[in-house]
Amino acid sequence: MSDIPVLFSHPDFYIVAKPVGVTMHDAQHGIVTLLRNQLQESALYLCHRLDDGTSGCLLLARNQRAAAALSELFATQQIQKFYIALAQGKPKKKQGTVKGDMINRRRGQHILTKTCDNPAITQFFSHSIAPGLRGYIVRPLTGKTHQIRVALKSVGAPILGDTLYGKDSADRLYLHALRICFTYQGATYSVSCPVSAGQAFLSQAGQQWLRTLSEPEYLPWPNVKGKAGVN
Question: Pseudouridine synthase RsuA/RluA-like domain location, by residue (predicted)?
Answer without folding.
Answer: 12-153
